[in-house]
Amino acid sequence: MIYVIATLTIKPETRAELLAAAQNSIAATRNEHGCIAYDLYENVADATKLVFVERWESTDRLEPHRKSDHMRTFGRIAVKCFDAPPKIEIISPERVDVR
């Protein structure tokens, strides 16, 4: 299993457009093979920062997800809404031992 954290910084005036596009993409992604969870959150301190938190069975499932029709459609809309390049992190589910 892996986690994907995708942070988007958007232009405030494009928020409604981005959220509408995200709604369709989220619904379709949740039905993809290998998707365990796929949710969108808002940064409490900055409403122009939206964060996708994703959980996938494996990294092998990410490439089909990126190439899916619904992600391509979302990408065409989202790119017009960005105020900065998205930051995408792929994170291991293994906890770091800090004892």
Describe what is shown at a glance.
The chain has three helices and four strands; from the N terminus they run βαββααβ.
Task: Give a structural overview.
This protein has helices spanning 15-29, 62-67, 69-81, and strands at residues 2-9, 35-42, 49-56, 87-91. Strand 2 (35-42) and strand 3 (49-56) form a beta hairpin. It has a single domain, classed as Alpha-Beta Plaits. The longest helix is centred in the first third of the chain and has 15 residues, at 15-29. By secondary structure, the chain is an alpha+beta fold. Helix content is 34%, strand content 29%. The chain contains 3 helices and 4 strands, in the order βαββααβ. The mean pLDDT is 95. Helix 1 runs antiparallel to helix 3. Strands 2-3-1-4 form a 4-stranded antiparallel β-sheet, with helices on one face.
